[in-house]
Every structure is written in C-alpha cells, then in structure tokens.
Specification:
- This protein is mostly beta strands and 634 residues long.
- The protein has one domain (17-633): TonB-dependent receptor, beta-barrel domain (Maltoporin, Chain A).
- Helices cover 2% and strands 60% of the residues.
- The protein has three helices and 37 strands.
- The chain has helices at 26-29, 56-59, 520-523; strands spanning 36-38, 41-43, 62-64, 67-69, 80-86, 102-107, 115-122, 128-137, 142-152, 162-172, 179-193, 196-200, 221-237, 240-264, 269-277, 280-297, 300-317, 321-329, 347-364, 368-385, 388-389, 393-395, 398-409, 412-423, 442-456, 459-475, 481-501, 504-518, 537-546, 552-561, 564-565, 573-574, 577-590, 593-602, 610-613, 617-620, 625-633.
- The protein has a 22-stranded antiparallel β-barrel.
- The two termini are 30 Å apart.
C-alpha cells in the first residue's frame, strides 16, 4: 500500500531485534540525521520518498537486507524492523550505490527466545491501533517471527481509513554460516479517503479552512491490498559467501479516486473534480544473487563482490472517469449522489531489466577506504495504450561508481564519491492529462564529498556537499507530464548525532539545496529555473533526555522549512513554516518484562500552513494532535 505522499512537515537489525518494541526510539538509535525508522518511529532529513530532493522508491533504489528489491507496495511494519537511508558517508562502502540514495529495509528476524511484543495506541486524530509481533523457536535451528496489526486511523483531513496487516518470517539456520529467510506479508486497506488537492486560480495561497474536515464526496474512498513476499538465503561456498534473494511486490487496487479542487479563489469558491479510477495493478518480481569474498593482507582487507540482478515489472492503469461536479466551496461538502462510472480501456506497461556487476573494496586500518564498481544493465520497456502500442524503449548503459575515504586522525574522516545510475522516473500526477504514466528509465549521476568528525566516541558530526543531475519531468503548459529539461540539485547537508550530555541525546540536521532546471522550456520562458515544490532549506532537531535513576524521559522535535516554490513561473512561494512536538516516555515492568508508555503532542502551537506538490497543488499541514501508545516485550 502506498499512501499519497505530499511535501508536508513531519513525516542493521540485530539477533533479538524483533523482541524490543518497548525500546523503540528513533532519536537514541539514529547514527546520523539522514534518515532512520525504528518500529513506528521515524526521523531524519530524508526518508524513502525524499533524498536530496528525489525519491529512492520512485527511482527503484530500495533494498531488503542489502539485496535489490523493486518495491511496488510499502512493506508493512510487521515485516520490517526499520529502514535506513544510505547516502553520503553511509553509502561509501555499500555495494553498488545509487545517485538518488538507497532505502535499505531490515527484516524483523526471529531470535532464539519465545516472546510476544504487543503495542496498542490511540491518536493522533482520534484513531486507534493494535499490533503484536512475536517470535517462537521451533527446535535448535528453526525459529518463526510473525505479527499482525489492526488500524482504525483518523487523518488530518478528516478521513477514517481502515487497515489490516500481517506477516510471517521463519528463520532457518541449519549450519554455521547458513541462513534461509522466507517471508510473506499482506496489507488490506479500505475506506481510504482521497486527500483533497487544492489548485488556486492565481498566485495566492488557499483560504484557511477547518482542518480534520473531510469535505469531498463521501463515496470517494479507495480499497485494495498489497503483498510483499520472498526468500533470502546465505551460505559459504568454497571460501566465498553466497547471498541471494528473490522478491515479489504487488499493489492491487480495487477502486480509487482523486479529489481535485481547481480554480480556487480567495473566497474559497472553486470547482470540484473527481477522478474515478478502475481496478489497477502494479507488480514486480525482482532479486539479486551476490558472491563475495574478503582477503586479508596485514592491515588491509580486500573484498570482491560479484552480482547479478533482475526484475520484471508490470503495470495496469488508466481508464479513468473524470467527473466535473461544478462550482463548490472548499471546506464545505455539497453532497452529490455517487454516479455510475464510465471507465475506459486501460494501459499496460512491462519492464524487463537485467544487471551484472562487480565491485572491489579496500579497507586499510588507520588509513582509509576505497571502492570501485562497474555494472552493465539491459533495460526494456513496452507500453500498450488504448490508442496502440508505443515504441519499445531500450537502454544498455555501463554504470560506474567510485568512492574513497581517508582517516586523517582517530576521529576525523574525509570522503568523496562518484556514482552513475539508471533509474526509474516518477509517475505523472493526478492533475496531468496523462496521469499515472511513467516515462522510461533515465540516466543519472552524482558527485558528493564531505567529512565526519567524531567529537566524542558517542557524538559524531557529518558535513557534506552533493551534486545530482538527471532529466527533469513535470507538467508542460498543456498539463502533459513530459520531459522539460535537465534538473541539477546541488546542496550542503549537515548532521550531528549522539549523546551531548549524560542522558541527553541530540539528532539534528540541515540541508541547503540549490535546485536548477535547464533546457528549452526554461529558455523559452515556459517554466522557471527552480522546480515546483522545491525548498532551499530544511532543518530538523530532536532531543531526548532520560532522567538519572528514573523511568521517565522527555523529548522534543522541531522542524523548519524555508520558502517553497509554488508555481512553474517561480513568481510565488509558500512562506517558511516551523513546528514543534513534545513528548515523553515512562518505562516500567509487567512482572519481569519491560514496557513503555509513550505520549506526544505534535504541532504544539497549532501552526497553520501549506504543503505544495507537483503542478502547484496545495495541501493543509497537520494541526495540533495527541497520540499515546503502550508497548511491551512479554
């Protein structure tokens, strides 16, 4: 299941990781500020849908346990322990990095002790949820992890979607160095209201309306289900380590809607358009087989990775029925009976890609690290539309990467790297006349460099610069999602993470971004040089303080966003916004078992603001909210 993702404010598992839900804390467990999720908590400058202004998920840069995974549906938290965004220094020694960064999921692995970890909670807008993760050893070599979750959500725009998720992941370790990890997960969603998307008639913000109020038609609810399942294995082979995984990811939507409010005036009047979408399916089978070996030579370790990757992706989409409901007032529902929809013929995409690659790594104690890799990929995409088949798109580039890091002292590292990739381009948004279409894969490249300074063993500063280039797709003057030029993102990113005082943990980050589009559309004055929805600055800071000899801890999270470009002409911006969340934890025992009560108030000052997305759409930010949950390891 992939929920609608808009630019709003806030948004390696160990042996016994599954059984530690009471200890989930993204702030204390984060190694840097670039993006970490642990259980239900996430924090960082980046996330799987946004890294340096781009989306690793859209680009196809997702991994499970380090292995290539073509994600078509968000993995449930019952399956995934956490996700780490690997970018900059954290991607230096990562085999086969990518220009848009890597979103690396860690599975919930079963340990050798029987345990169940329930979590119940309420909020943030009046909804509730209940989860349970468990592990059960079955003999000396086999253990089973599994979980289920039931969610009755309430959204900041007044929706009340329902979700159910479940997963199971046995773990078989028949011999030393041998591990087999099959897994299966499913998420069912229903009554999922489509968030209202507002497009103003000019260079002005939408009027303020009551939030937590679902004013589109009550019949515009989505439903469907998604699956992620696969098999991971590892074994020693003649002095080498063989790792591999094969995965299936699918999102099957039975019905869908988009709620658009266009030509909105300062007095809240406008037109309501509903886009009804027939059943669709996005699915992919992908995997990787990797052979690795390390050779030690005095203080140097040499490692070689040989890999084969592949995927077969299919998409069925389109056939939408666009219904113009006429004049309306946003924030006020003007109920209309659900019509009989007239769906059209659909389009079909089929992508096949195979990649072979090799990489060499050198780790030299007290000196530095170096890696170089090469990949050869063959890509083809065929599309059948109601108007006929489009020409098949083919590409077969060589892809390169090289990284280096030098240890200037015990706590000071400098690094740099170059990466060239072939990535998927984003899909056309709902406002586009060719909505849901995805252009063929695009060639991308990145150069980055920086430093890491270990101020103390448990406090690290990372500062870096980056330069990422790729073809630029957005709406042209006719609202067709098309290539408009080349986009270049240059920026500076800063992270500090660790314990600054006894019991006081800090994770803070800042990104300064210079995004620029070049090409004929800019030269002709059709669009401005800065992409829509871009912000030049994004800052975050999270503090967690645990009182000495006490079960209590308190925390605070602050986020601040600079001006955001709100139209293609670059003549209008959404003003800066900052929000603050505060919370706390109380740790206690249930018998001899650990439990934690967690409470948090988000946007404590109830600041009112707007997010802006592709095509100049506006959404309202999250208002003040309260959430509470109880987690235990029994």
């Amino acid at each position: 299941m992939r929920r609608l993702t808009i630019a709003l404010l806030l948004t390696t598992a160990g042996e016994a990781a599954l059984a530690q839900r009471a200890d989930d804390n993204a702030t204390t467990q984060a190694e840097d500020a670039f993006g970490t999720s642990v259980g239900n908590e996430s924090f960082g400058l980046y996330n799987p849908f946004s890294v340096r202004g781009f989306s690793p998920v859209d680009a196809g840069n997702v991994r499970i346990e380090g292995l290539y995974f073509d994600q078509q549906a968000n993995p449930t938290g019952r399956l995934i322990e956490g996700t780490t965004v690997r970018v900059g220094l954290s991607a230096q020694s990562y085999p086969f990095p990518a220009p848009t960064g890597i979103a690396d999921h860690s599975l919930r692995k079963a340990g050798g002790e029987a345990r169940i970890s329930p979590v119940i909670g309420a909020g943030p807008f009046g909804g509730w949820f209940a989860e349970a993760d468990a592990q059960l050893p079955v003999g000396e070599t086999l253990s089973i992890a599994g979980g289920a979750g039931l969610y009755r959500d309430e959204t900041h725009y007044g929706g009340d979607p329902h979700y159910f998720s479940a997963s199971i992941a046995p773990r078989w370790q028949p011999a030393a160095g041998v591990e087999v990890l099959p897994f299966w997960s499913r998420t069912r969603y229903s009554d999922e209201e489509a968030e209202p998307l507002v497009f103003t008639a000019g260079d002005f913000l939408p009027p303020k309306i009551a939030r937590k109020n679902f004013y589109p038609q009550e019949w515009t609810t989505r439903k469907g289900e998604s699956f992620n399942y696969g098999l991971i294995g590892e074994a020693p082979v003649a002095g080498w380590t063989l790792r591999g995984g094969v995965f299936r990811s699918a999102n099957e939507r039975e019905r869908g809607f988009a709620n658009l409010f266009v030509d909105v005036q300062p007095d809240a009047t406008g037109r309501e358009i509903v886009i009804a979408q027939p059943d669709s399916k996005f699915a992919s089978t992908s995997g990787e087989l990797r052979l690795s070996r390390s050779f030690d030579e005095s203080d140097r370790r040499h490692t070689v990775h040989l890999a084969v990757r592949g995927r077969e992706q299919t998409r069925r989409y389109g056939g939408d029925d666009v219904i113009d409901l006429g004049p309306t007032v946003i924030g006020v529902r003007e109920a209309v009976a659900e019509p009989v929809f007239d769906f059209g013929a659909q389009s079909f995409d089929r992508i096949e890609q195979q990649t072979v690659g090799a990489t060499y790594e050198l780790r030299w104690r007290d000196v530095g690290e170096f890696s170089v890799g090469v990949q050869k990929t063959d890509y083809s995409k065929a599309t059948d539309t109601p108007a006929g088949a489009l020409p098949t798109s083919n590409d077969s580039p060589w892809l390169y990467n090289a990284t280096a890091a030098g240890y200037l002292s015990d706590g000071f590292v400098v690094y740099g790297g170059y990466t060239r990739g072939l990535e998927e381009s984003p899909q056309a948004p709902d406002i586009a006349t060719n909505r849901n279409e995805a252009p063929p894969a695009i060639r991308t490249e990145q150069v980055d460099a920086g430093i890491r300074w270990a101020i103390r063993p448990n406090l690290k500063l990372v500062a870096g610069v980056f330069d990422v280039s790729k073809p630029y797709y957005d709406l042209d003057p006719a609202s067709v999602f098309a290539k408009l030029g080349t986009v270049r993102h240059r920026g500076v990113e800063l992270s500090i993470a660790g314990e600054i005082l006894p019991g006081l943990n800090l994770v803070a980050g800042n990104i300064l971004l210079d995004a620029e589009v070049t090409g004929e559309a800019v030269d002709l004055g059709l669009i401005g040089r800065v992409p829509v929805a871009t912000t030049k600055r994004y800052s975050i800071a999270s503090l967690n303080y645990r009182f000495p000899d006490s079960p209590f801890s308190i925390d605070a999270l602050a986020e601040s966003t600079g001006d955001r470009i709100a139209n293609q002409e670059n003549s209008f911006v959404v003003p800066p916004r900052a929000v603050l969340a505060v919370g706390g934890r109380y740790r206690f025992k249930i018998g001899d078992k650990s439990a934690t009560l967690r409470a948090q108030v988000g946007n404590i000052f109830n600041n009112y603001g707007f997010g802006v997305g592709g095509g100049g759409l506006f959404v309202y930010n999250l208002p003040r909210r309260f959430s509470i949950n109880l987690a235990a390891d029994l």
